Amino acid sequence: MSVALLSVAGVALDALLGEPKRNHPLVAFGRFAERIEQRLNAAGRGWRSHGVTAWFIAVIPLTLIATLLSWLPFIGWLVEVLALYCALGLRSLGEHVEPVAEALRSDNLDEARRRVGYLVSRQTAELDSTEVARAATESVLENGSDAVFAAIFWFVVLGAPGVVLYRLSNTLDAMWGYRNERFERFGWAAAKIDDLLNYIPARLVALTYALLGNTRLALRCWRTQAPKWDSPNAGPVMAAGAGALGVELGGPAIYHGELHDRATLGDGVPADADSIDRGWQLVQRGVWLWLLILCLGTEFYA
């Protein structure tokens, strides 16, 4: 099967079934990663070398297994589709952000705060409606890149091994890639590897957002605002996304009790429930665009 058809099948399976409700492979992987971290980073004493070792133990064997399974005759294509399906979070992203927008429209700020707390790591208990909408819109744009587009990118490049390698690495970054006393040294490798794997996809996503929205503003925001953001990949994605939507994102936020004076992203109206919906629609249109390009490219080069 062509990579385009396999990609369409994986996205369709995600749209039809969503994330597995029980026995999700990434949940099991997370427990496995926790045990590795407990052994190699006990009491936060692990060094960078321990973090590198932990990353290899967690990621490489499973990537090799995915490689071998994808080579199996007759069912290798099914392994490829299932690998992409398990790595994608498109439907799940919508299921998490839409209730935030609905709560804001109903003027139920407490519910909106609770719901957005499932999406972001910042403190949400004292956010006003604009700040809740801003957090949710940022999450849509960034998670669209991490949990959807980057997974498709690595699947197209390397098939099942590529998407498994990427998704496991991204999960380890989410678990270990913190700049705090416990993970500053141990999580360094996980964070850097995730940055490397997301470098090209993030810029393709930023370009996608720009093409599907206010292109001129998106490109200007990407050029001028992304360098001010801490993350080398989230900066272009969210700056371009905010510009494409014509909405103002970023700004100060409290993480783990500490105020972070983040740069302002985008330009335009304050975030609201509509900006959440438009961000979600932007991600969906971007996925359709990527699949269309894959299909046309396959037909052209066939």
UniProtKB/TrEMBL annotation:
Q: What is the lineage of its organism?
A: Bacteria, Pseudomonadati, Pseudomonadota, Gammaproteobacteria, Pseudomonadales
HAMAP family assigned: CobD_CbiB
Membrane-related topology note: Multi-pass membrane protein
- This chain belongs to the protein called Cobalamin biosynthesis protein CobD
Transmembrane regions listed in the UniProt entry: 52-72, 147-166
Which family, according to UniProt? Belongs to the CobD/CbiB family.
Q: Where in the cell? A: Cell membrane
The job of this chain, per UniProt, is described as: Converts cobyric acid to cobinamide by the addition of aminopropanol on the F carboxylic group.
Task: List the InterPro entries hit by this protein, alphabetically.
Answer: Cobalamin_biosynth_CobD/CbiB
Provide the alphabetized UniProt keywords. Answer: Cell membrane, Cobalamin biosynthesis, Membrane, Transmembrane, Transmembrane helix
Tell me, in one coarse class, where this protein mainly resides: membrane
Q: Which pathway does it take part in? A: Cofactor biosynthesis; adenosylcobalamin biosynthesis
